[in-house]
Amino acid sequence: MIDRIASLGRSGADVVISIGRAGRFLAGVLSGVPRPVTGFPLLMKQLYSVGVLSLAIIVVSGLFIGMVLGLQGYTILSDFGSEAAIGQMIALTLVRELGPVVTALLFAGRAGSALTAEIGLMKATEQLSSMEMMGVDPLRRVIAPRLWAGFIAMPILAIIFSMVGIWGGMLVGVEWLGVFEGSYWGNMQASVDFWDDVVNGIIKSVVFGFVCAWIAVYQGYDCVPTSAGISSATTKTVVYSSLAVLGLDFVLTAVMFGNF
Amino acid sequence: MIQRTTDITVGLFMLAGLAALLFLALQVSGLSPKSAKSTYTIYADFNDTGGITPRGRVSMAGVTVGSIDSITLNKETFQARVAMSIHGDVDNIPADSAAVIRTSGLLGEQYIDISIGGEMDSLQPGDTFYSTQSAMNIERLISNFASGK
Questions:
Q1: What is the pTM of this model?
Q2: Which has the least CB within 10 A, A69, A96, B44, B63?
Q3: What sign does the dihedral B87-B92-B95-B98 (CA atoms) show?
Q4: Where are the domains of chain A?
Q5: DSSP letter at A224?
Q6: pLDDT tens-place string over residues A173-190
Q7: Is the dihedral of CA A138, A144, A149, A154 positive or negative?
Q8: Cβ contact A171:B32 at 8 Å
Q9: By the CB < 8 Å criterion, does A166 face chain B?
Q10: Would you call A222 an interface residue with chain B, using a CB distance cutoff of 8 Å?
């Protein structure tokens, strides 16, 4: 009995310790400002692997989610004879919620896990410690560009996701099911506000990008340097990122849209 | 050479993001730079605002000419004071026009309709409508009918 209580306390303390370490790690990364000239090519390389290479999955998922929203929305709205409202339903759902959230979940699976595995393998093969031996700060050289790349790429991916989704919804709603195109865009423009809806969605995706990239690089940097350790760190990255994104999404939605 | 290719693809990626943002701003949210800057505010006092909300529609002859900014309670007269911003190019609303709260369809959203007066002078920025007509309340209508008034 005592043992159980003790182990409960230990696991609680472990959580607090790892959050504290993650915070200290973040402070360490952010305090070393990347040098503009030498840091720029590193950042570009990471933006390519984190952002450009995620584009395919983002575009395809966005298209399908928009098309499914179009179909489902049409089925429900046509019961009330208001299928012209399909444009505003698709646009608001995508811009406010699904764009940032689904992009973040896909981003955690596609880019976050890769970041963790890469950094974890660097640690296991002692590349990070040899960098330290050469007087190169691994936080600045390896971690910072990846963190910034995730931070920058995520909002762009979310915006592209929303755009492709709205276009996919139009394909189904207008081209296939025959909703009048003018009312599709007109209802959308009447109900979507640029600052209240679009910009708030972008703010959400900025927060998600930061959290996902932070969790991914921290899990890689902090993993047990064995093959089992890397695999569990990769799993943790995806699980923690998804949970953090969904939890933060509720908080952000309550703050942004919950002013009743 | 590899670095150059990376730079170009990342640049294209950034441009795609910018284009998508532009699409969301112009096509989806209907943000046009012209209507964003030139509006002026006029006021109306209502006994009952019914279901109108900020960001709601203000129309004239069915054409949207502005939006509702805020709805506050005037504590002296116990009326609702509605501020609405009207597009700058609609600057000749006759001074004796009335602001009427209407419902689109039987159960649709409520909006403010400006019914045109005949005076030569026009409402200036900051002016208040002289006459208003409050929201139609179906419950009150039914109870009036039932009690035979």
A1: 0.77
A2: B63
A3: negative
A4: 42-257
A5: -
A6: 988 988 888 888 888 887
A7: positive
A8: no
A9: yes
A10: no
